[in-house]
Structure formats: C-alpha cells, structure tokens
Amino acid sequence: MKNIWRIDLDLALCSGMGDCARLAPEVFELGPDGLAHVRSGVTDDPAALDAVRACPMAALQAWRDDTGEQVA
Predict the structure, then answer these.
(1) What gap in Å lies between CA 7 and CA 63, rounded to an integer?
(2) For the chain, what is the domain count?
(3) What is the CATH classification number for the domain harbouring 39?
(4) Which of 44, 66, 68, 71 is the most exposed place for a label (fewest CB within 10 A)?
C-alpha cells in the first residue's frame, strides 16, 4: 500500500521562494501572483514531503491521508 499525503498551504506565509515547485513540480507551481499553489492537495509523490520540509517560510504542511498524522 502506498503512502498518500494531504498537503496544506498557508498562503499568508508563502513568500514565493519556489523551492516547493522546484522539488515537486507535479504537486506545486508558482502562480501568476508569484506565490506557490498546490496542483493536487493529495499525493503519493515522496518529493512532496521534501518540498514541504524545504519551505523556508514553513507555509506547507503534510498529513497522512489515512490517519491524519502530521508528517512534515
């Protein structure tokens, strides 16, 4: 069984550094406003966890979809 994570983004904390979009382009993108946007709020892409952990503004969080446990 694959791990599936729910990704949350707090736009009030995002400063548009773009680390998330570089590390997990299937999950994140920078919008025309220069801020990160989540392409898919639920993913099995392990790169999404790397991206969440790399956010310098702590604007991202990841939760296990099956248990609700915060993982990043």
Answers:
(1) 7
(2) 1
(3) 3.30.70.20
(4) 68
